[in-house]
Amino acid sequence: LQALLLVVFMVVDSFGSQALTCDGPCCVQVIYDASCSKCVHAVRSVRAFHSSLKTHLELVVHAWPSADAEAALKSLPESRRPNSAVGHVIAHFPGGVVLPTCELRVEELMYEMEGAVYLQYPSRAVASRIKQVVHDSLWEARQALPNDMLPWWQRTEIIKLVARALSDENFCILDDFLSEEAALQLCDTALHSRCTMARGTTNKASDKNDPSRGDVVLFSNDHLIPGSMALRAGMDALVQGLKNCPEVAERLRYVNWGNAAMLATYPGDASRYIKHVDNLNGDNGRKLTMILYLNRDWRPCDGGRLRIFDPAMGDYNVKYEVDPIWNRLLLFWSTDEVPHEVLPAYKDRTAVSIWYICGRESLSNPESFQQLFNNRQLTCLAGSDPIQCLEDAARTREERETMRSLQGEYPFTEARIISLGKVFGWVSDPAQSGKACDDPIALFSCADAEKTLPSSLSGDAKRAKIDSSPTSLNVTDTSSNGDWSIFD
What we know:
This protein is α+β, with helices and mostly antiparallel strands. It has helices at 2-14, 37-53, 67-74, 106-118, 124-143, 156-169, 180-192, 228-242, 359-362, 366-371, 386-393, 397-405, 414-424, 430-433, 440-444, and strands at 27-33, 58-64, 89-92, 98-99, 171-175, 198-199, 216-219, 255-259, 262-267, 271-276, 286-293, 306-309, 318-322, 328-333, 340-345, 348-358, 378-380, 452-453, 473-474. Helix 2 links the parallel strand 1 and strand 2 (58-64). It starts with a helix and ends in a 14-residue tail after the last strand.
């Protein structure tokens, strides 16, 4: 009898006509177009992955068209409900996350399933303490300041609080960072530049349809972005102030460059950027990340929060979630102390990012080294002498003299890169190192970010190079044409 019931269940399940409801707190609903072979194939992979999780997470699958599937569609939050299920796999998670096109991004669905199982939030007491340090203490200090022409955050007592937050919690939040005029200029540029924006990428060779990242970007070195100069001036002033704070001064000692501003929009179709680190291996020069959010009238149902994790790429402990509200500045260390992700956005979500670069760290490899001389990509902090910044980054007298001699020589020849490798101790590939990189997306869109995807993939569900971490899967493109080819 048990064997017979098992067979009956498998037959019903294979046609996706389960009559189960999704009432539990750990239940995922999946609705798919049963007439679409791509959707059927995707659901088959999802089922196999769900079985490998071996947890209490319930998976309820509805084949469309059917009464159950229509009821499941109607149960979705109205602002996140797709117009049609035709040709789609749609997933609905506890907490309201809706992924409307999982047939294109199966691994993203699996990533979210694993998060639903393992994600841990801080206790109320811990969350309150963090909020007090990174936001509330600054807001309270602001209320006591006189109203004058100086930006509120540019006062010594405020910058000291920012340094404390970076030292204690690795990030900080400043509201009303720019003048309203400058923020409006940046926002208007984003609205009128969508047709010229390019898909963000996660490494130099990756396909620009990479499903782990869904934003479109524009760099200020390629296009005039009104408001970006005011943003850079403000951020430079903040960095200069932080350099005078003992808590963070040593970490920022050789941070004398910032990159061209990157304007990024997540286009409101559940687009996101999965968990990553801006400078995972500590060798691309990025030391401090600054992001200004430009989302007027943002509401929680619009999605797009930035989720910060505890300092471990394989850790599912959430530290904080930042609301991407209008004219809010978020700054955090670019290192592996701050793994983070952009949660699915259901309305256009726009931000401008600048990375501040450590000159000394940039000497560790030829790619980072060359960017110090590429003034299309990097410029020194306001008021700094570029030659002096280069010399300060040097570790020895020979390096200092070499840096001084290279003025005006960029881009470097292959032979020059090989000779420089002897001075700076690089083990480089001459075939690659001699090529100067003028692609801003390749250099400054989290080029070294690891993609953290489901750890439980096994058997036919896996075609990737993985590391030994038990909780993270670092995926490398193994297909010949650059497309992601993880699943059969």
